[in-house]
Amino acid sequence: MGLPDAPGDLSSEVDVDAFRRLFPLRFYERHLTESIRPDGRPLGRARDTTIALGAVASAEGSALAKIGSTTMLAAIKMEVMTPSMDSPDEGCIAIDFHMPPICSPIVRPGRPAEIAPVVSKQLSDTYFKALTSYMCCCSSGMINLKELSLVSGKAAWMAYLDIYCLDADGALFDAALLSAVAAFSHLQIPAVSLNDDGKIVVVSEENGGKLEKDAVNKERMKLTLKSIPFSLTCVLHKNYILADPTAEEESIMETVVTVVLDSSSQLVSLYKPGGPVLAYTSAIQDCVALTRQRMKELQKILDEANSGMEVD
Amino acid sequence: MVGLSLGEKHFIQGGIAQDIRSDGRKRLTYRPINVETGVIPQANGSARIRMGATDVISTVKAELGKPISLQPDKGKVSIYVDCSPTAAPMFEGRGGEELSTELSVALQRSLLGGKSGAGAGIDLSSLVVVEGKICWDLYIDCLVVCSDGNLLDALGAAIKAALSNTGIPRVQVAAGASGDEQPEVDISDEEFLQFDTSDIPVIVTLTKVGRHYIVDATTEEESQMSSAISISVNRKGHICGLNKRGGAGLDPSIVLDMISVAKHVSEQLMNKLDSEIAAAEAGEDES
Amino acid sequence: MEFVSPEGLRLDGRRPMEMRQIRAEIGAVAKADGSAVFEMGNTKVIAAVYGPREVQNRSQQINDQALVRCDYSMANFSTGDRMRKPKGDRRSTEISLVIRQTMEACILTHLMPRSQIDIFVQVLQADGGTRSACINAATLALADAGIPMRDLVTSCSSGYLNSTPLLDLNYVEDSAGGPDVTVGFLPKLDKVTLLQMDSKLPIDIFEKVMQLAIEGCKAIANYIREIMLENTKQLEYRRGI
Amino acid sequence: MAGKPGTTPTTYSPSPTTQKTRRPIFNENDVDWVRPDGRGFHQCRPAFFRTGAVNAASGSAYAEFGNTKVIVSVFGPRESKKAMMYSDIGRLNCSVSYTTFATPVRGQGSEHKDFSSMLHKSLEGAIILETFPKTTVDVFALVLESGGSDLPVVISCASLALADAGILMHDLVASVSLSCLGKNLVIDPILEEESYQDGALLITCMPSRYEVTQLTVTGEWSTPKINEGMQLCLDACSKLAKIMRSCLKEATSTSQE
């Protein structure tokens, strides 16, 4: 966008906020030249991230992830289904991403925001790529669907994973993936048993002693999570790379690159939906390097949250 | 929807202040009520109520169903209201949906009592055929044909009239159907057991305009309302439901005062309705 | 299934050429500009007309004639089993279109340019022949609203079962799968404005069945004219002329 | 791929809690009945409020009453939808929605379709609409977890969010609900108590102006009982309002540092 430089001197008297609103790009470029961002972060650093497990009591596994002010709440509810014929001993996961009207002014009740299906498609791709498309070598694949099976051919778990965006301030995908991963790590599959009319019922504590026909799995089981995917979204502008953009930065500089690595730092997916700036391989490599560095931070935060969980 | 000039608004408010409304009625008098029962022969029970220009039809259909597990000894009743576009052009297509849901919820709250079924105007346990397995599901459908204000009272009265006109077929259960599979049932279509509608409550809406409140408000008067309270009172004088509409806040003492006035007015309305229903039933048997 | 008994009586005791009992009432909805109730046997329909009034959205406004809009809807309790069909299902949209085109043909729309006429039809009870009852009710409502029309439009349906043409089918005869001819007729101008038929019928038999339906329409027209005359006397009396 | 279900197969929830809550029988002199969570009959759950939960919104608040967790965000006053006619007073647009995992059994949130219009009626009386003509204030609420008496919590939280957004109001709006179980009146019921209540009373009021903006009663009540119920709720509302005011004061004091 060729901005007229004539009123260059004008910007000195105009107060900072007005300048930021009137000429957003020039405001940002003024900052980028000193490689600093308006909220004081260097270009490569992500916003501070926190994870709180067990946010919702009515779900078997839940987590609240906050990256800067972008907040995501993910919760998993387990229900029983009869597995399909072609995969009798596998459960399945239904992933849904919701953008309720409370999270940003653009979203109106009734009409879903057009970004919601995009993110939920991205999420399910990342999950299913991580889960199943590597079935042949089944090396990565965060969750092994076989663990979700109850009675082969007759009953299996259906995990409904619902992610709600409570506050949208850029990098929605990172926060959504992080909250989903945390929810899975916090998930506790209830101990169930088959009662007389063939239905799976939770073995509640009081009658825990009297075991019905065959308690399918005795204690509350946790899912074994192998190679956990982590992601970082970067924004490309001229030759700058900004990690973990806020909503304002995303709206000004439209070129977004999302890199997803798993814990054994294998590239799971790379997503660049268009945008004016062309990404040469060098830029992509920088993004991957940033993501690798960011992955360590996220891994540490997740482990802290999990260890915190074990204690109580 | 109601285009009133400033002059007309003052005329209405002034009239109410001096206890003379634009159609000559006092503050607490009703418009002429006309009741017809059995208007829809295909339904188990139906009635049409005209309060002045407001005209509503309500029908009761009974179908066999399974009671919910939490209350095996009670039948199920559901109430739906539908605003027909004949009442106002804005109800065309999905226009009348919001008002319909609001009216349905208000009716359900007044006639069906609490979640445990206590205090319900309709005696749910009389609807059970085989406890836990078969019961009658009553579907009460109401249609607003023409709306000139005071819809909730008209609908409440129409449901009371429709229920008094309802005949539930007697049911014989084939003996020996043990276990939990559905026993076969044959429905006789001669004798019907009538419904006792004595303790079905009557809904009275008090609309506050300026400093006074009136009963049976027309659309113009309702457009001047600052707040309104709909109270459903049954024969024993107990309050079976209360619903405050309209924006302005009300002092709790005024709310209690309105409740006592509503109880007083509801007795007159209850007797008037019973006489009208009896007349309609008698009229229907001759024709 | 035997629809016509050897002595020539139908299931509900009518003769093949006999119509169901008709009843009409004008001015059923006080707040509407024009309204009417029309009953053919158990089929009961109420129609209300609002207009000519200002067009709601400018884009649809026609500057040399009136815009006629129609909305057909069935009450939840109108059919035997309680159906919860959503508002805009295909059948009611089709019937709304049929009624709109039929009425638009007979309303003198050029006399009321840039205006809008809304016809709302609500089926209270459906026992076959709802389409015809709606058109008759709409005609009465338009007349009650004082909207200029070329002629009254009356409509009747007829069918062909057990090789005998039957006039004014009820729900059982209608759903028997036989042919069903619906005719919309202008009695004074002696013209047919609406003709709908489904399933196969040889041409000569079709001629007979259609002629039977036209006779039915004429009978309805006489009845409607009587009702309107009586209603005008009522108005005259009320005005004390 | 097995993971991607074509048509989601019908599933059922294995947890028995929803099927088996038998209704404890209340006889007239049932004094020794204790509430499932041990509270006194006239004791509300501990109330936790925090404003500024969503900074994408012009005003927002988070409320937590026991297990009931709600977030409300307020946008506006902003220009209303194209279809709206001109209006010389401001317009209020409310919408309440549930998350799929809020209720013990998935998808029970859709039963509360009328909450949005109830929220609208409660707030309408308190907001001074004349101060933002031709524009609309949008109030959106999301119930994260449904732990019982969700609507009163949504209403109180919404009035806090409006205050946080700087919308002019006559007074804060506090709302409390009350269940009638047999003879005794139980305030601020939890989900289990609500499932077998005989009657319910919900009051929304402006505490300092001492005015009732919304009142709903279901079940059979005699007049003295209604009077007692209303008095109980009004006292609870004034206590709740004190908590809400202190939360607002904290928020402003922290933001000044």
From TrEMBL, chain A:
TM segment ranges: none
GO BP of this protein: exonucleolytic trimming to generate mature 3'-end of 5.8S rRNA from tricistronic rRNA transcript (SSU-rRNA, 5.8S rRNA, LSU-rRNA); nuclear mRNA surveillance; nuclear polyadenylation-dependent rRNA catabolic process; rRNA catabolic process; TRAMP-dependent tRNA surveillance pathway; U1 snRNA 3'-end processing; U4 snRNA 3'-end processing; U5 snRNA 3'-end processing
Exoribonuclease phosphorolytic domain: residues covered: 46-190, 228-277
Keywords tagged on the record: Cytoplasm, Exosome, Nucleus, RNA-binding, rRNA processing
Gene Ontology molecular functions: mRNA 3'-UTR AU-rich region binding
Keyword RNA-binding assigned: yes
GO CC annotation: cytoplasmic exosome (RNase complex); nuclear exosome (RNase complex); nucleolus
Protein's cellular compartments: Cytoplasm; Nucleus, Nucleolus
Keyword Electron transport: no
InterPro entries named among the record's database cross-references: ExoRNase_PH_dom1, ExoRNase_PH_dom2, ExoRNase_PH_dom2_sf, Exosome_comp_Rrp42_subfam, PNPase/RNase_PH_dom_sf, Ribosomal_Su5_D2-typ_SF, Rrp43
One Pfam family linked to the record: RNase_PH
Family stated for the protein in its record: Belongs to the RNase PH family.
PANTHER family per record: EXOSOME COMPLEX COMPONENT RRP43, EXOSOME COMPLEX EXONUCLEASE RIBOSOMAL RNA PROCESSING PROTEIN
Protein name per UniProt: Ribosomal RNA-processing protein 43
Automatic annotation (TrEMBL), chain B:
Residues in Exoribonuclease phosphorolytic domain copies: 30-169, 199-263
Keyword Cytoplasm: yes
One GO term (biological process): U4 snRNA 3'-end processing
InterPro entries, sorted: ExoRNase_PH_dom1, ExoRNase_PH_dom2, ExoRNase_PH_dom2_sf, Exosome_comp_Rrp42_subfam, PNPase/RNase_PH_dom_sf, Ribosomal_Su5_D2-typ_SF
Domain of life of the organism encoding this protein: Eukaryota
Cellular location(s): Cytoplasm; Nucleus, Nucleolus
A single MF term (Gene Ontology): mRNA 3'-UTR AU-rich region binding
Major location category of this protein: cytoplasm
Keyword Cytoplasm: yes
GO cellular component: cytoplasmic exosome (RNase complex); nuclear exosome (RNase complex); nucleolus
Entries under Gene3D superfamilies matching the protein: GHMP Kinase, N-terminal domain
Keywords attached to this entry: Cytoplasm, Exosome
Protein family membership: Belongs to the RNase PH family.
UniProt xrefs under PANTHER family: EXOSOME COMPLEX COMPONENT RRP42, EXOSOME COMPLEX EXONUCLEASE RIBOSOMAL RNA PROCESSING PROTEIN
Protein name (Swiss-Prot/TrEMBL): Ribosomal RNA-processing protein 42
Lineage: Eukaryota, Viridiplantae, Streptophyta, Embryophyta, Tracheophyta
From TrEMBL, chain C:
Record GO terms (molecular function): RNA binding
Domain of life of the native organism: Eukaryota
Keywords: Cytoplasm, Exosome
Annotated InterPro entries: ExoRNase_PH_dom1, ExoRNase_PH_dom2, ExoRNase_PH_dom2_sf, PNPase/RNase_PH_dom_sf, Ribosomal_Su5_D2-typ_SF, RNase_PH
SUPFAM superfamilies tied to this protein: Ribonuclease PH domain 2-like, Ribosomal protein S5 domain 2-like
Compartments it resides in: Cytoplasm; Nucleus, Nucleolus
Record-linked PANTHER family: EXOSOME COMPLEX COMPONENT, EXOSOME COMPLEX COMPONENT RRP41
Homology family: Belongs to the RNase PH family.
Record-given protein name: Exosome complex component rrp41 like protein
From TrEMBL, chain D:
Compositional bias per record (Low complexity), positions renumbered to this chain: 1-19
Subcellular location: Cytoplasm; Nucleus
Listed InterPro entries: ExoRNase_PH_dom1, ExoRNase_PH_dom2, ExoRNase_PH_dom2_sf, PNPase/RNase_PH_dom_sf, Ribosomal_Su5_D2-typ_SF, RNase_PH
A single GO cellular-component term on record: nuclear exosome (RNase complex)
Gene: RRP41L
Cytoplasm as UniProt keyword: yes
GO terms, biological process: nuclear mRNA surveillance; poly(A)-dependent snoRNA 3'-end processing; rRNA catabolic process; rRNA processing; seed germination; U4 snRNA 3'-end processing
Domain named Exoribonuclease phosphorolytic: residues: 43-167, 171-232
Family, as annotated: Belongs to the RNase PH family.
Primary localization: cytoplasm
A GO molecular-function descriptor: 3'-5' exonuclease activity
Keywords: Cytoplasm, Exosome, Nucleus, RNA-binding, rRNA processing
Protein name per its UniProtKB record: Exosome complex component rrp41-like
Highest taxon listed in the record's lineage: Eukaryota
